[in-house]
């Protein structure tokens, strides 16, 4: 009887281990950014017109894209105002915001609205807070206090 119990425990652990890998609760949330000529985008679009990676056409397209972005940056350096959000469907330009990604975030009860600049090199963003009971620092185990 003890062998049966031992084998049933091993079988149970194997079933739990295999089912844990298929459980969506163990996954993590995430998203990826891809440029238009990346391999994942090419697989989804299945378009033959996209240049092959490493080819002359590929680098020409990248240079063309860089020139367009540089042109937009130079165009913003004159006295025009760049784009931001306002109530309604209108879009305005503010030169001080630069070329970052922005999101409207509503947090708390009662809800407070923030315009947040997103850093594509990080998964964190900070909100301004003037409350006296907020966390002032975050300590990591064995690491520095942030």
From TrEMBL:
One Gene Ontology biological process: proteolysis
Residues of the Peptidase A1 domain: 101-146
GO molecular function: aspartic-type endopeptidase activity
Superkingdom classification of source: Eukaryota
InterPro entries: Aspartic_peptidase_A1 (IPR001461), Aspartic_peptidase_AS (IPR001969), PEPTIDASE_A1 (IPR033121), Peptidase_aspartic_dom_sf (IPR021109)
Gene3D superfamilies membership: Acid Proteases
Protein family (similarity comment): Belongs to the peptidase A1 family.
PANTHER family membership: ASPARTYL PROTEASE FAMILY PROTEIN 1, ASPARTYL PROTEASES
Identification of the protein by name: Peptidase A1 domain-containing protein
Organism: Gossypium gossypioides (Mexican cotton)
Lineage summary: Eukaryota, Viridiplantae, Streptophyta, Embryophyta, Tracheophyta
């Amino acid at each position: 009887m003890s062998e049966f119990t031992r084998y049933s425990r091993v079988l149970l652990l194997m079933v739990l281990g295999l089912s844990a890998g298929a459980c969506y609760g163990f996954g993590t949330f995430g998203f990826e950014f891809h440029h238009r000529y990346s391999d994942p985008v090419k697989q989804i679009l299945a378009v033959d017109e996209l240049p092959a990676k490493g080819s002359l056409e590929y680098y020409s397209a990248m240079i063309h894209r860089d020139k367009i972005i540089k042109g937009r940056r130079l165009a913003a350096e004159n006295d025009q105002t760049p784009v931001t959000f306002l109530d309604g469907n209108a879009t305005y330009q503010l030169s001080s915001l630069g070329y970052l990604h922005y999101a409207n975030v509503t947090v708390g009860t009662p809800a407070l609205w923030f315009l947040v600049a997103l850093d594509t090199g990080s998964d964190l963003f900070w909100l301004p807070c003037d409350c006296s009971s907020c966390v002032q620092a975050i300590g990591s185990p064995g690491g520095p206090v942030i």
